[in-house]
Write a structure and sequence with these properties.
52% helix, elongated, 15 strands, Four Helix Bundle (Hemerythrin (Met), subunit A)
């Protein structure tokens, strides 16, 4: 089992020269120890001296232990031979871990002790009987492979327990370089897994990261004169100086990079182990099930479909969003192919890319692993160049659990659980992702970050009004927690200051949700019931001081759209992704038309509907895109729309039949839907506001539920923001008047909620 370690090229920076000297020193020390130990053993028959651990890998650092096994073939005087070895080593001051075994005893130890087995798999003969050493290594390896499923399952459990105890190297202020998740031992475990043929060994990036950690460990031992592997705060400046780095922050930043690289590699290996150890089902083929255009589920990973268009720059975010929404990891080969083949996004971003980013973040915790995969391949910085400044940036504050970039992703993932609390879930998710983007820059990070956010949001293609909101959210993301915990909430000046800063209800609710997501992503010490109560109180007071919440106005059709209805009783027009239907008004028109779109596997991105009482005309406009694959034949779509308008197509029956034939993966957990009846927002209609996770046929189900309540549609505004539907329906009863009775309002709410579940 080879332990090749990437060594920095000759010459280069001072840090590279220091690291080269460390590698050379370890190699020279290994050669010197080998010669000395061989001399101590002498020419003994039927005996072999074997190194395990650091010296077996020729990686013994100044404070490292010497781990030796004396193997023999049943010699009665082996104790005398051992004493001739161990006592001089102890006298030299070296720390020694030693054992004496026959070949069968060595194999027995490897079979019984999962901690000892990886070391024996990588054992290296120093002196003595070569055939004896080879016999032990071959026997240990054969046993390891013969019982690989059981042994690897146990090793996986042991590794995960170690991670829980030691934490993750990339996010610790005082990391354990060896045993933390993403540390040196994880690479040793990858080699052990590779020896079983269950997964490949570490790739070039993981080997480079391993070499860096080894050099930092070398510097730590040399600077402190201790053998400890925990890089304490008090030693970080000295270790950084020894490595030729500017300061402790620079040291932590390269450690974060190395730790995350190893963690990403290890996660993939342990997923492979889980597959390897799972019960085998004979005759079961691995399906390739479509998830999005150009994206498929393949086994337990998400991959590119055959023939996926890699010339489409939006495919990176589309693949990522599909994986996160399905709660599945990206196949490493897919990530590599995307990084190699896909070009940069145009500026401004297409709407599809922006929606995919929002859908990715809206998947919640499942987005974190997918984001990390893109980050490891350099795709995040390619899409968001400003991300480079916060990437791997440590936060020297015990309250913060994560680096700046990981904190931002965690905050966005946490905000996904709060999307039902805001009218603009897309702005909440993107605002959470960018709220600390100014950290590390000169000046107040909120002010700097707000200016950066304006540029980023503009490049993303947000409308100017939305850019203003995002800039305000980032500028004032600390306003509510700081004011709530440091000011007198009874003082009218406190509330007026907040109201002046936020301007309207939309920004206020975004800041309230972001305050929760930000604090929870920071760490347990940053959030608690006391702080939550204070912020809720401040938001309530500020909300009362602001004008009533404004709902989007009903859609107003153009004269041309109204004119369509005057030809032959109605008209259907299809132009690309836009579908317009203008017909004499009738009950159930919206949901039946939406059902036809769902039948043709079209996903509704936006919909606008209005019914004119005076003209008796209804106008519906949809923006709809294929769920995946090519768009449907416009002629067939138009024919089905005309059939449903004429009452000759049973949409419900066909949709139910199709749903029964399709197996859908459950996907990630999403916040429960929310239905709000706003009975005082309009003088002519009752407003039903729906916020839910989008899925095929959602608009059809909501419209059908409203129809079953005997309601008629006066207007509708339907928007899909990422993976969230934010819909507003203006409805009246059969008498043409707004709903008034409380039991009727409650029934409408319950029926719509039932349709969403």
């Amino acid at each position: 089992m080879s332990f090749d370690v990437a060594v920095p090229p000759a010459g280069g920076t001072r840090t590279e020269r220091v690291r080269q000297s460390y590698a050379a020193a370890r190699a020279a020390r290994a050669d010197e120890l080998d010669r000395w130990l061989a001399g101590l053993l002498g020419d003994e028959p039927q005996v072999a001296l074997i190194a395990v651990g650091s010296h077996a890998r020729r990686e013994l650092t100044p404070g490292g232990d010497l781990d030796l096994v004396l193997v023999h073939r049943g010699r009665d005087d082996i104790a005398e031979v051992a004493d001739r070895l161990w006592y001089p080593i102890w006298d030299s001051g070296l720390r020694l871990d030693h054992s004496v075994r026959t070949v069968e005893e060595g194999r027995s130890v490897a079979r019984a002790d999962l901690k000892a087995a990886p070391g024996l798999l990588a054992a290296r003969r120093i002196a003595g009987d070569r055939a004896l050493a080879d016999e032990l290594r071959a026997g240990v390896l054969a046993d390891w492979r013969a019982d690989a499923r059981t042994r690897l399952a146990g090793l996986a459990e042991l590794t995960r327990r170690r991670w829980e105890t030691k934490g993750e190297l990339a996010f610790l202020l005082e990391p354990d370089l060896k045993d933390a998740r993403g540390g040196l031992r994880d690479v040793h475990m990858i080699h052990a897994v590779a020896a079983s043929w269950a997964a490949p060994g570490p790739d070039a990036r993981a080997r480079t990261a391993y070499g860096l950690l080894l050099d930092v460990r070398h510097a730590l031992h040399e600077v402190t004169g201790r053998s400890a592997d925990r890089l304490q705060l008090q030693d970080q400046e000295a270790v950084a100086a020894a490595l030729g780095l500017p300061d402790g922050n620079a040291l932590l930043r390269i450690l974060v990079e190395a730790g995350r690289t190893i963690t990403y590699s290890a996660d993939h290996v342990w997923r492979s182990v889980d597959r390897f150890c799972a019960p085998r089902r004979r005759g079961v083929r691995i399906e390739r099930r479509p998830l999005a255009d150009g994206v498929v589920e393949h086994g337990d990973e998400v991959a590119l479909a055959r023939g996926a268009d890699l010339d489409d720059p939006t495919i990176v975010l589309r693949v990522a969003a599909a994986a996160a929404q399905a709660g599945m990891p990206l196949a490493p080969a897919t990530v590599e192919r995307l990084a190699e083949r896909v070009g940069p996004l145009p500026v401004p971003w297409p709407a599809e890319a922006r929606n995919a980013l929002v859908a990715l973040l809206g998947a919640g915790p499942a987005a974190i692993g997918v984001w990390e995969a893109l980050d490891q391949a350099g795709l995040i910085v390619r899409m968001l160049p400003d991300w480079a400044h916060v990437r791997n940036r440590p936060q020297r504050n015990a309250v913060h659990r994560f680096t700046v970039d990981r904190h931002l992703v965690e905050a966005a993932a946490g905000a996904a659980a709060l999307t039902r609390d805001v009218a603009r879930p897309d702005l909440l998710l993107v605002g959470a992702l960018l709220h600390d983007i100014g950290k590390g820059q000169p000046g107040d990070h909120s002010v700097v970050g707000a200016a950066m956010t304006r540029d980023i949001a503009t490049r993303m293609g947000f409308k100017p009004a939305d850019v203003d909101v995002l800039e305000t959210v980032v500028r004032h993301h600390l306003l509510l927690p700081d004011t709530a915990t440091r000011r007198d909430l009874e003082d009218p000046v406190t509330v007026s200051t907040v109201v002046e800063a936020v301007g309207d209800h939309t920004v206020l609710e975004l800041l309230a949700a972001l305050a929760v997501a930000d604090a929870q992503a920071t760490g347990p010490a940053a959030w608690g019931n006391w702080k939550a109560r204070l912020i809720d109180d401040l938001v309530r007071r500020a909300g009362a001081a602001l004008a009533g919440r404004a709902l989007p106005p009903p859609f107003e059709p153009t004269a041309d759209q109204l004119a369509l209805a005057r030809h032959g009783g109605g008209a259907v027009r299809i132009a690309g992704s836009r579908v317009t239907v203008a017909v004499p008004d009738r009950p159930g028109l919206l949901w039946r038309a939406a059902g036809v779109l769902a039948l043709h596997r079209l996903v509704v991105r936006t919909a606008r509907a209005v019914a004119s009482q005076d003209a008796g005309t209804a106008v519906l406009t949809f923006t709809a895109v294929p769920e995946f694959g090519s768009p449907p034949d416009p002629a067939a779509l138009e024919a089905d729309l005309r059939r449903v308008l004429a009452g000759r197509l049973d949409v419900a029956e066909r949709l139910e039949r199709r749903a029964a034939s399709v197996r859908r993966r459950p996907g990630v957990a999403v916040p429960p839907p929310r239905v709000t009846i706003v009975d005082d927002a309009s003088a002519t209609a009752t407003v039903v506001e729906v916020r839910a996770h989008d899925r095929p046929g959602l608009l059809w189900r909501v419209g059908q539920a409203l129809g079953e309540c005997g309601l008629r549609m006066r207007g509708a505004r339907v928007d899909t923001l990422g993976a969230d539907a934010v819909d507003v329906f203006y409805v009246v009863g059969e008498d043409g008047l707004p709903l008034a009775a409380e039991p009727v309002l409650a029934e409408v709410r319950e029926k719509v909620l039932a349709a969403l579940r």
